Amino acid sequence: MKLTKEQLKEIKDQQSHQNSTKRVTAPELEKILYEAMPALDHGFVRVIDYMGDDTSIVQSARVSYGKGTKKVSTDSGLIKYLMRHWHSTPFEMCEIKYHVKLPIFIARQWIRHRTANVNEYSARYSILDKEFYLPTAENLAAQSLNNRQGRGDVIEGDQAKQVLELLKNDAERTYDNYEIMLNERFDGSIINENKKGLARELARMNLTLNTYTQWYWKTDLLNLMNFLRLRADSHAQYEIRVYADIMLDTLKRWVPITYEAFLDYRVAGTEVSAKGKIVLQKFINNENISMEDSGLSKREWNELMDAFNLKDKIIK
Amino acid sequence: MKLTKEQLKEIKDQQSHQNSTKRVTAPELEKILYEAMPALDHGFVRVIDYMGDDTSIVQSARVSYGKGTKKVSTDSGLIKYLMRHWHSTPFEMCEIKYHVKLPIFIARQWIRHRTANVNEYSARYSILDKEFYLPTAENLAAQSLNNRQGRGDVIEGDQAKQVLELLKNDAERTYDNYEIMLNERFDGSIINENKKGLARELARMNLTLNTYTQWYWKTDLLNLMNFLRLRADSHAQYEIRVYADIMLDTLKRWVPITYEAFLDYRVAGTEVSAKGKIVLQKFINNENISMEDSGLSKREWNELMDAFNLKDKIIK
Amino acid sequence: MKLTKEQLKEIKDQQSHQNSTKRVTAPELEKILYEAMPALDHGFVRVIDYMGDDTSIVQSARVSYGKGTKKVSTDSGLIKYLMRHWHSTPFEMCEIKYHVKLPIFIARQWIRHRTANVNEYSARYSILDKEFYLPTAENLAAQSLNNRQGRGDVIEGDQAKQVLELLKNDAERTYDNYEIMLNERFDGSIINENKKGLARELARMNLTLNTYTQWYWKTDLLNLMNFLRLRADSHAQYEIRVYADIMLDTLKRWVPITYEAFLDYRVAGTEVSAKGKIVLQKFINNENISMEDSGLSKREWNELMDAFNLKDKIIK
Amino acid sequence: MKLTKEQLKEIKDQQSHQNSTKRVTAPELEKILYEAMPALDHGFVRVIDYMGDDTSIVQSARVSYGKGTKKVSTDSGLIKYLMRHWHSTPFEMCEIKYHVKLPIFIARQWIRHRTANVNEYSARYSILDKEFYLPTAENLAAQSLNNRQGRGDVIEGDQAKQVLELLKNDAERTYDNYEIMLNERFDGSIINENKKGLARELARMNLTLNTYTQWYWKTDLLNLMNFLRLRADSHAQYEIRVYADIMLDTLKRWVPITYEAFLDYRVAGTEVSAKGKIVLQKFINNENISMEDSGLSKREWNELMDAFNLKDKIIK
């Protein structure tokens, strides 16, 4: 990730502010406010603003006049209770805003989380930066053979080299041609004074999906957790997980009590179906039950065994 | 509006905080933060938290690294442009949270604005305060004769007295019986030690719709303006307008540039239909056009004349 | 529940229609379309319209040109997979619309499900029906002693009689006074020709929360299941559960495959936290673990034991 | 637009269905149900399902037991009233579902309308079709000189030829390399049996933004009109307007009364700010007012004159 001098200066300027406020603050989050935390080869995540902290959840759950309770233990118990019983509205009372730079094909996954506010850099209006995502060697994965939307082994050797070259060359050439069609370079210089440029809203169609875009993205704490639950999960595409992991760290700095409950109940927790419950009960009571008798499909059976770390019960 | 000593102390405590933050602040809004601004006879509006200011709108509209521009004039021009052309997403980048005490029948109107986050005081869980809304004499309006959901003249004399007495007596009696059914007074004292109380979730059904409830209500700036546009309008029910007017003042303190544009384009602006445009064009060109030829209904014609203050053209 | 002759005729009229359509239909749901299914003492649930069926979920999950597959087994497997892995968007592709009559205090719970479309009968505009909810003897529950928002034993004898009388008398008297203030009876007759009536938007505040209202309520299948999961649950208030149970039956008629998966994974399934998983693993491996060592609170421990029907491990 | 034989057969199959239903139907919309209406060079719009018609709006606005009124005139008056006064909820009571094939850069604009349900063809899971959008000669517009997000004159001659060639070649080459990286052709044939293919979720990043994707898109009538108001507008990008225009026609077939009101009040109507109202009033009263005195910016002044077709008052 490389920012221009001007951008770095703007960030420094914001970070140098020390405003006085009666609002609650999250000191650990303040420390990294506005910072551009690198993601992938040219992307970043910046926390731009936030509202509320752990006490805000307690305060609104109780519809209290003051600031929830004084005792951390009581607040923590309530937050855990709310998380366990899927009480959603108190977690909506905190809000956070990010500035994110990310490849377009990842932006297209991300935007499917609808309960968020977004302003994206407009390629109808401006010229996109000349930056493309190129995977590192260890992330150049083959198509998974048993999961149609997953990754298998890493591709190596000559094939890896070829893939990276294709990606690089295609991105660069399509970008160069984008400039030629625009009759303008990304630095604003005109290519041929005697020509008109193609409309920006048209020229952009020549860019590849690994071109970087950027946006402001704002959401409440509940929907942030919904996002992280799906996107920081091991089944999520690696490239979006990189962003989710950075955001998980901002969650910890912002609302540490909620973060702990989120890890316990959502991230590392699991769901068990009615049929799955009977299987586990039988196991606990030392009774036998086979996959066939359980009513579970092989896939479902194995997912259950995997969730409870019962490796020897997995059926190949 | 009367708060308990404890509540007043909690509010004072919050107001005494002076935290340091790198976030943008709205100094005029800070001045009234947490304050309980009276509404109707027992209600209030309190601003609890906020995120962003006018510059945040500019910043995200431009997807900029820094804080929008330095010049107020440029920011103002952009905000007016965004408002005029119904650009919605930049206004979603600011957020505000209120604590409101209000009669249940008003809460039922208010909640229809769905794009907001709400935590209401739970009468399944707690006993509601013994407070009911009773209109003042000048707000005791008769049913309008020509608008099925509007108000006509004020009711006066003996009938006014009778109405107020009925409202007062019914609210008090149903509340007293609510306590009897609960076997518990609102101050927590038990009425009859030998009896069980009816479940709170049931007993509450005996309360009248003018009983006060309270909630935390959080929304973004765009949806706040949608709310205010409808609820601060002269066609809105008086009782909700009282709240909307207080909130309009908080809007002015929070985002003064947006507030001005909102007044100009939304509140005091008007819409003209395709047919209405032709009527106005004819007027401007000193051509004649009658209601019959315009294709407008009488009602629609009069709404148009009224909007443009053309009193002599209104058809009785 | 009593409908007027006119209302019954309108329903019969609608039911007699036999339109031809190329859209998919749900034959079992068609059988009860428009029918007023009784709920509580004066309420009902009517299915007014719907869009899609089980095959629509499959069709959109596959973004196919035709109607999903022909084989029920394949469709069923996919729907179960989608449910298990919390894929949400395909379930949003079906839509249903209800007409519901319900007490106001239940409407206030219901409306908190925001992702739905609602048109409620307007008491600003019209006079509400003279109908109030009065619990039957067996639903007159005392406040629970250990759950602040739950019910305990049934109240009996004289106290029960007293409660019912208070509820009935207060509802009737406040309604009578509502009519007096309106200067109009619910059948439209004027009480005193020489008087003006109080505005409807004001008079309604005198009604008690068990007065019936009605609305059209439309939602997609995903959000219907979210609603039913919470409101058909044993922890939901009895009065809303009555409605949810009727709607569960309409779900079965509409999308039978989805209904089965919903029961298995959502209704009768359970969630296990990271700490809870370790407890169950120890049990399965015949290792000891105490509540103290588990990191679970007593309440949480008991919830887990209860979910897996391990009665002897519950700690009093 | 070219569909495979199999796809055409699936569509024919669906169209041959004649199911019986008690639901309301929209006969004109039924006539084109499932039909693939061509859009741009390879795209299409198909109406897959719908719920409700004009009478459904009336029915829910009145919360009636039957089917609104019998008289079209009364229904029409109410629908116009609702549209004029921005009553939104009754229009949410109708729902429609489309299957759309469209270039990715248009999909990215479209998806910003959040209040809709979407299932998009997954390029993590499947290989995208080998189809790219290439503008026709008359749509090859230059960048506008006075509107940073608009189009100016058409580009012609050699430059036009060059642009089209660049677009075509880049799309084809990046697609060929996509296949090489996947080690699989779009028809499913393997390129080199001894190689693994790159994961689909990675390979897709090499595609250009004019590649076609497809989705199921479902929304309610209110949000469809919000979409059409913006996207069928002359300021919208041509390529999305093509889709919006086709959908406008489906609106007309579906809810003809609402369609008329929509054209009159939304599409061909205009908004006038508080300051703009004063200008028009002065004109009507034959008083003078200059742009300077009006408080309007030049741009705003001209927008107003343009809206009311007052060409001679436009300031160059």
Characterize the structure shown.
Four copies of one chain form a homotetramer. In chain A, the strands form two sheets. In chain A, strands 2-3-4-8-5 form a five-stranded antiparallel beta sheet. Chain A is built from 13 helices and nine strands. The model of chain A has no long low-confidence stretch (mean pLDDT 94). The longest helix of chain A is centred in the middle third of the chain and has 26 residues, at 157-182. In chain A, helix 4 (72-84) runs parallel beside helix 10. With 316 residues, chain A is α+β, with helices and mostly antiparallel strands. Chain A folds into three domains: 5-127 and 210-267, Gyrase A, domain 2; 137-206; 274-313, no CATH class. The A-C interface holds A 77, 80, 84, 86, 89, 112, 230, 263-265, 267-277, 280-281, 283-284, 286, 297, 300, 303, 307-310 and C 77, 80, 84, 86, 89, 112, 230, 263-265, 267-277, 280-281, 283-284, 286, 297, 300, 303, 307-310. Strand 9 of chain A pairs antiparallel with strand 9 (270-272) of chain C.
Concise synopsis of the structure shown:
By secondary structure, chain A is α+β, with helices and mostly antiparallel strands. The first copy, chain A, has 13 helices and 9 strands.
Averaged pLDDT of chain A = 94
Named CATH architecture of the largest domain in chain A: 2-Layer Sandwich
- The count of β-strands of chain A is 9
Sheet-strand content of chain A, in percent, reads: 5-15%
Sheet with most strands of chain A: 5 strands, antiparallel
Spell out the helices and strands of chain A N to C.
HEHEEHHEHEEEHHEHHHEHHH
**CATH topology name of the largest domain in chain A:** Gyrase A, domain 2
Gyration radius from CA atoms of chain A, angstroms: 24 Å
Helix content of chain A: 40-55%
Name the shape of chain A in a single word.
Answer: flat
Strand sequence of the main sheet of chain A, in spatial order? 2-3-4-8-5
Strand-pairing-aware structural class of chain A: alpha+beta
- Quaternary organisation of the protein chains: homotetramer
Query: Of all protein chain pairs, which has the greatest interface, and how many residues does each chain bring to it?
Result: B-C, 56 and 56 residues
The N- and C-terminal alpha carbons of chain A lie at a distance of 44 Å
Quickly count the domains of chain A.
3
Count of helical regions of chain A: 13
* Poorly predicted runs of chain A: none
CATH class of the largest domain in chain A equals Alpha Beta
